[in-house]
Design a protein that fits this description.
Residues 196-421 form the Radical SAM core domain. Residues 15-150 form the B12-binding domain. It is a single chain. This protein has 477 residues and is of the alpha/beta class. It has 17 helices and 17 strands. The strands form four sheets. Strands 2-1-3-4-5-6-7 form a seven-stranded mixed beta sheet, sandwiched between helices. A six-stranded parallel beta sheet has the order 8-11-12-13-14-15. A two-stranded antiparallel sheet has the order 9-10. Helix 13 packs parallel to helix 14 (419-435).
Amino acid sequence: MRIVLVHPAGSNWVPGKKDVSATANRMAPLGLLCIAAYLERQGYAVAIEDCLGPRPAATPEETVRRILAHRPDLVGFSTTTSGFLDACDLAALIKQDHPDISTVFGGVHVSALGGVLLERFAPIDYLCLGEGEQTLAELAAGVAPAEITGLAWRDNGAVRVNEKREPIGDLDSLPFPAYEKLAGFPKQYHLPLFSYIEPPGATMVTSRGCPYQCSYCDRSVFKRGYRYNSAPYIYEHMSYLRRRFGIRHINIYDDLFTLQRQRVESLCRLLIDKPLGLHFNCAVRVGHADEELLKLLKRAGCLMVSVGIESGDPDLLETHKPGVYLEEVRTTVRRIHDVGLRVKGLFMMGLPGETEESIKTTSDFVVSLDLDDMNMAKFTPFHGAPVWQTISGQGQVAEDWRKMNCLNFVFLPRDIESWERLDYLYNTHVKRFYSDPGWRKRFRSRLWQHRHSLYRLVRDLPDFLSAMRTFEPGQGH
């Protein structure tokens, strides 16, 4: 059994603009790499086609030729909402001349919508609902579809959705992601500009699931449970990246890296006692970042922590991110800075209930925090998020899957007069943050530390200038 796993390009930018997302931040597709490593351990030959990789195919037809060059028996697509339709186009091209090749789709979009996708999209043979490692292994092994939990399939034309698969309990039993299958890794897979000091960089995820219920978060794959790798496993994973690929910086993309305090303390002590010669970034939740823990993170090599804040309006927080309070956010940011760590604030604009007043309140709050970096996502109502069930009466929804990537507004709150006005308010805030004298002073003071990022910026300056123009306020005011 030969298997090709595909990371479709999707729509990762703003329609009509040059896509510079991979230039700014090319991430390894960790989900596919985890599945590839698991399947290889089961004895299968696995290849990966990363359509967002450093040498992407120019056309869908060329992508399909690359896939078919591996002579696959099974092709798997991992899809976000914005990437799903691109993956369907690729599957249709494969089926035109090779109807015998099986196609299986997985990812958050698939897990959220389920069997209805088989009714609408003929090129798809199977859906993997939830975690993919064991489901794909059983499918590859020839287990009858009716006996594979977590699978949706067609039975003589009728769509069947099997029982849910139980999540993998022991994450330490899984092999490290198959990074080596990515052409150009690690040098041509890079972290966000100015988020690291020394290249090359890599990404890790050390837990699955989240016990919280933020309104906008899609938990279709990992659900609300919380499972995590142990400290020794994480340390060995980091050590492997350092030895095998020369990695000097790791971004840990757990939603709640510090939730299980004991494992983080243990990991920090391992990194302090046996340094690996690398830095890392991680995310903390307000309420899970006391001074002692932050000092340990700093000593262990942490450079920057991200904090999910979302809004500066207390009413919006109560609705969409309960349990997070503005004064506690201020205290957490101050505490992080006091121990010598950098802080990146994560925000979201355009949530249901958003008004021009709440946007201004949030913008004022963001600037007042003296953050080292900021990311303002455009609220996207994903099908697997709790808010999807109540969204219809709270504004206009433009359900264009290709645009549902947090970089385009597809929801207009009822108290914002127009889409153009919402874009104007967004761009005005982004420009305000990066024009703030305090932020610019901090940025200039560290510029030499980030000379590799500066080199990347200069090398791709035309692309970055084009991206900057995308965020000019323009009309709409």
